[in-house]
Amino acid sequence: MAETGTKRILVVEDEPIVALSLQDMLEDLGYAVVGPAFRVAAGLDLAQSEAIDAAILDVNMAGEDSYEIGRTLRARNIPYLFATGYGRQGLAPGYDDVAVLQKPYREAQVDALLRAMLG
């Protein structure tokens, strides 16, 4: 269980090595990780049911996109960002206001984006 005040970050990433690396980064930064979810359905379930403060969503999840998870988070007023190797131009229309974490990324980039999102 996370300490009181520890921000909980949902991780949705289909590549286990990338997900576990991101989990390590987040934990090193003092966050509690929810997931990681390796498939869209699992990520959607966590996005609907868990107490989370923010999320990092891989856009392309084994051939499925994670936009439905983003819509669920938006409906719950939970900030999120997309992690993708394709950059902002790889996003579907309608997500111009969502931050993009360009793969490959570093811990400092993750930290800066999360701090900006969480205020």
- Major sheet details: 5 strands, parallel
CATH superfamily, called what? Response regulator
Q: Structural class from helices and strands?
A: alpha/beta
Question: In percent, how helical is the residue content?
Answer: 25-40%
Would you tell me the overall average pLDDT?
A: 94
Count of distinct structural domains: 1
How many beta-strand elements? 7
Rg, alpha carbons: 13 Å
CATH topology (level 3) name:
Rossmann fold
Strand content: 15-25%
Unreliable stretches, pLDDT < 50, 5 or more residues?
none
What is the strand arrangement across the widest sheet?
A: 2-1-3-6-7
Question: What sort of overall outline do the alpha carbons produce when their principal axes are compared?
Answer: globular
Which CATH-level-2 architecture? 3-Layer(aba) Sandwich
Query: What is the helix/strand order?
Result: EHEHEEEHEEH
- The CA-CA distance between the termini, in Å, is 23 Å
CATH class assignment: Alpha Beta
Give a verbal description of the structure.
There is one protein chain. The protein has 119 residues and is α/β, with parallel strands linked by helices. It has one domain: Rossmann fold, CATH 3.40.50. The protein is built from four helices and seven strands, in the order E-H-E-H-E-E-E-H-E-E-H. Strand 4 and strand 5 (64-65) form a beta hairpin. Helix 2 runs parallel beside helix 3. The longest helix has 13 residues, at 16-28. The protein is globular, with a radius of gyration of 13 Å.
